[in-house]
Every structure is written in structure tokens, then in C-alpha cells.
Amino acid sequence: MSSLAISSVLQGGYQHPLSRSWQAKRTLTKGMLMYPIFITDDPNARVEIPSLPGQCRWGVNKLEEFIGPLVKKGLQSVILFGVPLNCAKDDKGTPADDPEGPVILAIKKLRALYPALYIATDVCLCEYTSHGHCGVLHDDGTINSTPSAARIAEVALSYAQAGAHCVAPSDMMDGRIKAIKRALIDAGLGNKCTLMSYSAKFASSLYGPFRDAAGSAPSFGDRKCYQLPPQAKGLARRAIQRDVVEGADIIMVKPALPYLDIIQDAAQLAPDHPLACYQVSGEYAMVVAGARAGVYDLRTMAFETCESFLRAGCTLILTYFTPQFLDWLDE
Ligand code: PBG
Ligand code: ZN
Description:
Layout: H1 17-21, E1 33-40, E2 46-48, E3 56-58, H2 63-72, E4 77-83, H3 102-113, E5 118-123, H4 145-162, E6 166-169, H5 176-186, E7 194-201, H6 208-214, H7 233-246, E8 250-254, H8 260-269, E9 275-279, H9 281-292, H10 298-312, E10 316-319, H11 322-328
Helix pairs in contact: 4-5, 7-8
This protein binds ligand PBG and zinc ion (ZN).
């Protein structure tokens, strides 16, 4: 006879693959995945990004060949990042809302090609400013908050007017959520465009491949005066609560895997909002590199990371693994 107490015997509850699946509060589905894509201003481009294996910069004319097969496999949403390589950058990021720029052209093209596809756009100035920072600067190089939020709201509104279903400011300027929500409402788009805030965005080492891909590294200094310090749980909680009050429709935590505690906090602080996390470029590159080094199986590890995001409380995951998950979730 076993000497274990009855309450000590757990294995009977998960001895079968199906009973194991019932242990999840939330299961990964295709609709939870948002695919980050890079759109550049050479309309015929398809250029691989060496630090982001398997990802490319795409020109607007190539979107059909790129996105068409993914939509067939069940892709439901994308988030667009502009990569201007041929434009004149300035201190206000003027090319960000150029009506002929890659993001606005891509919004229109994707809306026309795939009416059911949900199109989000990242909103930031760093890809478009001469100094590479995410806002407008004072002469001494520090952030000038009020014009920064105003300029970012202008850019967000242009993307919404071009047809984006969602605008997602990643700049971390104080006051930008309120400024964007106000601008959307005043333009009659309050009920037509979702505002997803990168609320708890940390100053992370994991954005390196993205900055390569988007050409958005700052020309001097760093982003530590606007992105959150990695050790700052309290600030993250305050930023989440602030963005809820200012009118965000979706809260995001970024990066994801090293910040699962913040995701869990966000789920508790904003229980009535969808909660997103961004498995950023460096996280993706780490998972791929580890698999290539034989540390683990790629697919098993990719599932383990995304399942941890769901367990922590996410309902939406931005991940470069989206195309692979569309296959894996069918198997
Ligand atoms: C721009 C922006 C960044 C990312 C998303 N939007 C880079 C940064 O803040 O330096 C990172 C995404 C990724 O690494 O995949 N502000
Ligand atoms: Zn930026």
C-alpha cells in the first residue's frame, strides 16, 4: 500500500495528452498571434535581415507574395514597422506620416488585398528622426515631452485615417496615450481605431536585431530616460495604470519572457483590458540561436515561451514566430 497521502497524488490528473491540455487556463490559438512585419521604401524589396533569421524587409509590391500564403494558413493580424532607407530624416520625424511613405501605402494595400486582416501599426519617431530618438528633443538633447506627444498623435492619426485598425505607440513619451485618444476622437475615429499602448516597455538589450532591421538606433545616448529601467516593477505598474486612465484599449508589456512578473501584474491591474506582450527581436533571435546550437528543439521551445505568456495572463502575443505557429497549430 502506498504511504502517500491522497492529496499528494497528482499524476493521475495529467497522465494523458488530452488531460494535460485541460490544465491550461488559456490555449494558444491563431487569433492570439500578431505578426510584426518590416515595410521598406523600395517597393520591390525583399531583403533578409541577418540578425533576425527568416525575417525580411519587404516592399509594398511584394506584400501579396509575402502575406497571401500566410492569410491562407490563418494569419489574422499584423503590426507594421516602417523602414525608410531613402528619405530625408529631420528633427521632428517628418517622413513618419508621408502619405507616400511605406507604412501608409502598406496599410492601404493590405486593406484592399485582405479585407479581413487586422492591421496594426507601430507608431514611433525613431525610424524617421535625424537623431534616432523616439521623440522631439530640446537643444540640449533631452526629450521635449509636449511636442513629442503632439507629433506622435499626429502620426497615429494619419495611420488611422489611412485605414489602420489599431495604432500602437512604442515611444514611451509621457502623455501620448491621452494625446492620441483625443486626436482619434476629435477626428471621428474614436470608434474606428484601437489604441494599443506599449505601456510597460523596458530599456532592454533585446531590441538589437530590431534596430538593425529598422535602422532606428539612436545617434547619441540611449533610451533610458523614456524606456523603463529593467528593475522598475513599481514604475511599470504606474505606467500601466496611467495608460488605462488615459484611454488605452489594449495594454502591452515588452519584452515578454524576462518580464513575466510584469505581465502578471498587468493582468491584475487592468483585468478588463486585453493584454498583449511582445516577444521582441532579441528574444526570437535567442530562441532560434539556442535551437541551432542544439540546446533544445525550436518548436518545443517556441511553444514553451508563448505558453508562459498565456499563463502569466496575456490574450495577445506579438511574435516573429507567427508564420511557424500557423503551421504548428495545424499539426
Ligand atoms: C521603436 C520600437 C522598437 C521596438 C519596437 N518599436 C525598438 C526600440 O525601442 O529601440 C522593438 C521590437 C523588437 O525588438 O522586436 N521604438
Ligand atoms: Zn522609437
